[in-house]
Amino acid sequence: MNASKMLVTGGTGSLGSRVVDRLQTAGCNVQVLSRSGRLGTVPGDLLTGEGLEKAVEGINTIIHCASSPTNSRQVDVEGTRRLLQAAEQAGVSHIVYVSIVGVDRNPFYPYYGMKLEVEQMIEQASIGWTILRATQFHEFVLTLIQLLDRLPIMLMPKGFLLQPIEASEVANRLVELVLSSAAGRVSDIGGPEIWTAADLARVYFKATGRKRSVVEVPIPGKIAQAFRTGAQLCPDQKYGKVGWEAFLSQLSKENYRERKSISLNLEEIS
Question: Of 224, 267, 233, which is closest to residue 109 (Cα–Cα)?
Fold first, then answer.
């Protein structure tokens, strides 16, 4: 049994829950921060700071997976500031943070700009740190496609390039980093394939046995330009082994139709 104590933020989300499972399997003493205070978790709220000081008492390593694309200023930026202050006071020795590939190349998108701000905040902290940037998850891409699947014609941004990776593979890499010493900015990781957003949708419809027209819509502006020129890609770091088609094949057609959209809350990662 690993004697060091670990705290996972966002530990009930799609990434964080996988990280928790792997750490527990490895025999680690791991706790999950949750504002709900549900059974089996440690109460603490990044939004207000309530409970954070107590939650980090005796903790050696924090795995920071919590994020909120819909409230990123208060949760990601200010929440991380509160978490770091509590961690520094408590003597936490290591924080591991998961970010997104290309946030420095596309800071025009507000969420990415705030993820970059969080990275810089962690880099300036007085405790050891490790930052891993990953491309978008297969699971998140699937959710976005399903959210857009509301009209007779599927509209997708023209030329947007993505390199999705399975969340479980990101969890595997995070655990490796958690069980090592602070390493600073480590190599980015991405999925095995690069797709346009439109082709991701076309493959999705083929996998679900549905005939849908996918129309690419030109999008102006700096954000769209960054996506078209590969700002969110890391073609030389194809860490993931599970491609988009393989990911879809793991799900039955019933699961596609019944799958609920992922709630973008404090305990989810994008």
Answer: 224
Classify each residue of 117-133 as buried b or exposed e, where b means 16 or more C-beta atoms within 10 Å of its C-beta. Answer: bbbebbeebebebbbbb
| pLDDT tens digits for range 49-66 | 999 999 999 999 999 999
pTM of the model: 0.91
Write the pLDDT tens digit of every residue in 93-105. Answer: 999 999 999 999 9
Phi, psi of 49 (to 5 degrees): 90, -5
Q: Which strand (E) or helix (H) includes residue 99? A: strand 94-100
At 151-189, the pLDDT tens digits run 888 999 999 999 999 999 999 999 999 999 999 999 999
Q: Which residue has the tokens 């393989």?
A: 246
pLDDT of residue 270: 26
- β-pairing, 161-162 vs 195-196, is antiparallel
Cβ–Cβ under 8 Å, residues 35 and 47: yes
DSSP state of 132: E
> Taking Cα atoms as reference points, which of 204, 212, 213, 192 lies closest to residue 249?
204
How far apart, in whole angstroms, are the C-alpha atoms of residue 16 and residue 8? 7
CATH fold of the domain at 2-258: Rossmann fold (3.40.50)
For helices 16-25 and 167-178, angle between their N-to-C axes, nearest 10 degrees: 50
CB 200 within 8 A of CB 89: no
Q: How far apart are CA 243 and CA 128, in angstroms?
A: 34
Return the number of other C-beta atoms located less than 10 Å from residue 60's C-beta: 17
